[in-house]
Specification:
This protein has 4 domains: 7-98, MazG-like (Helix Hairpins, Orthogonal Bundle); 100-133; 151-218, MazG-like (Helix Hairpins); 221-270. The chain contains 13 helices and no strands. It has helices at 7-17, 25-29, 32-52, 55-79, 84-98, 100-103, 111-133, 151-163, 172-192, 195-215, 220-244, 249-252, 254-270. Helix 3 packs antiparallel against helix 4, helix 8 crosses helix 10 (195-215) and helix 9 packs antiparallel against helix 10 (195-215). The two termini are 47 Å apart.
């Protein structure tokens, strides 16, 4: 078996790995549930490579992500439910169906009208899917917002979906007001000592902040990832300062640690175009 640029080789490798007689014992033992978290992890690693603009890593991570549908398709094929060809057929049908302005006679319009058309078609697809599944409950606008999404991202998507029927704050100022209201309710819950109320109110606050990001046109997951990365960079600066001053971080005390933290915060605030007040280029802080 030799590496190849052809999808058929990847499919053959996956089939070999799953062969019950000569395959890999670990791969043979896997099922849909046992590898699903790898699919999520690989998607995040793709996102990380994009954010770092590391295109060699991006190539490799996209390959790892591509392996996931191939893996699932092999297991499905073994059960006789579908194969990789069915997956490709489904997505090509969907792309053609959702782009009548490209593959049909509809007017192209603008990016906004294209998105509206896409969502209208998706709504019709949801209705057909609900009808196929049967049951007495009418389809909900929120039915296909995946439960497995990160909670912050799902909050944003749920609210965006509800906004399509007008269930939304009228402007960004109203969302900021809602965030302030929820923060006050968190404060009250904390003062009450009611743990269940604290969980509920903090959840409401996070949901409101996700909606604030949506109104501002900001991806809340991306914003939080950036905040996480910034925290890491600044805390590593604090650790470096401790080492420079010859003191262990755990012995430095909050006042000293906070002083180091404020040093890097001030440097960040005063930085313009990547140059610190001394005129020296610095990394993004």
């Amino acid at each position: 078996m030799q590496p190849s640029r052809d999808l058929s080789t990847l499919l053959e490798i996956m089939a070999r790995l799953r062969d019950p007689e000569t395959g890999c014992p670990w791969d043979i033992e896997q099922d849909f549930a046992s590898i699903r978290h790898y699919t999520i992890e690989e998607a995040y690693e793709v996102a990380d490579a994009i954010e770092r603009e590391d295109y060699e890593d991006l190539r490799d991570e996209l390959g790892d992500l591509l392996l996931q549908p191939v893996y699932h398709a092999q297991m499905a094929s073994e059960r006789g439910v579908f194969d990789i060809g069915d997956i490709i057929l489904a997505v090509t049908e969907k792309l053609i169906r959702r782009h009548p302005h490209v593959f049909g006679d509809d007017e192209a319009g603008t990016a906004t009208t294209s998105e509206t058309r896409w969502e209208t078609i998706k709504a019709a697809e949801r209705a057909r899917k609900a009808e196929r599944r049967g049951g007495d409950t009418p389809p909900s606008l929120l039915d296909d917002v995946p439960v497995g999404l990160p909670a912050l991202l799902r909050a944003s998507k749920l609210a965006k979906r509800a906004a399509r029927v007008g269930f939304d704050w009228p402007d960004t100022a109203s969302v900021i007001g809602k965030c302030s209201e929820e923060l006050e309710e968190v404060r009250e819950a904390m003062e009450s000592g009611n743990e269940r109320a604290q969980v509920e109110e903090i959840g409401d606050l996070l949901f409101s902040v996700a909606n604030l990001a949506r109104h501002a046109g900001i991806d809340p997951e991306a914003a939080l990832r950036e905040a996480n990365a910034k925290f890491v960079r600044r805390f590593q600066y604090v650790e470096d300062r401790c080492r420079t001053d010859g003191i262990a971080a755990e012995d430095a005390g909050l006042e000293r640690l906070d002083g180091y933290w404020n040093e890097i915060r001030r440097r960040h605030k005063s930085t313009l175009d990547g140059v610190d007040p001394s005129g020296e280029p610095i990394e993004k802080l």
